[in-house]
Fold this protein.
Amino acid sequence: MPGPVLFHQKRGGRHGKIFTIHKFRSMKVNSGGSTVSVKGESRITPLGAKLRKYKIDELPELWNVLVGDMSFVGPRPDMPEYNEGLKGDDRKILELRPGITGPATLKYANEEELLAQVDDPHKFNEEVLWPEKVRMNLEYYYKRNFFMDLSIIFRTVFR
């Protein structure tokens, strides 16, 4: 694929602090478009589709863990505008360091396939997926513990 190997993007982290996430690039350079990606869309390169399928595109996020921007388990870091939309108790999830994996990540590991099956992926994300992920992340906030995190890591690796 022509272009840089890594993709860098601003995301909202712990306490809403903005950080740069690092991933292997899976889309065409300057592809623009929605923040919601759908399986099979033209922005995703053939190699990128393989990287995404096996979640290999996430490996550079280990750097984010090493420097303290992320943890192994926690809510996935979102675009800053999503964090700004959190209200009331939902804002508690911003107290957590974002993670490479988490309960919502496991449940929606096939998110791109789900979005490919609906007429309006952006609307489905806004009205169904995003609220459910927020609910799950808030539940994780209240129930998290070492053994839960180990279970999530184990299920992520061996899913």
Summary: Residues 32 and 155 are 33 Å apart (CA to CA). The mean pLDDT is 93. The longest helix spans residues 121-143. Strands lie at 6-12, 18-24, 71-73, 99-101.
